[in-house]
Amino acid sequence: MISHIFIGIGAFDPALRFYSAVMDALGLQSKFADADKGWAGWMGTAPRPLLVIGPPFDGQPHSAGNGQMTALLAPSRAAVDRAHAAALANGGSCEGPPGLRAHYHPNYYGAYFRDVDGNKLCVCHHDPV
Prior knowledge:
- The protein is of the alpha/beta class and 129 residues long.
- It is 21% helix and 36% strand.
- The protein contains two helices and eight strands, in the order βαββββαβββ.
- α1 runs antiparallel to α2.
- 32% of the residues are buried.
């Protein structure tokens, strides 16, 4: 259903550090990183979907969307914890620490944070322990 998700960024280097750390914590691999174009992408075991970061296409400054959030699937609750810690260690800000959120469903374990440009992200795991 999804080919790729593109998240707008401001400065490439801090965004690349942030996303590289979070994607590594989730076990996702780099597909490309092009500093000249200011964009990078990651994938799981299949070539799609991709998560891509880069400057807005219209050339205008990036601004985080109100009410928009990208949720990434984690392979385990420990990966949620690692991704949240990596986000905070690389310039992100906490929007909700790792933990169960039974109001979504009994096994929903997630964490919420913002990247260095203010984009909101979630990392979650849905399976029981």
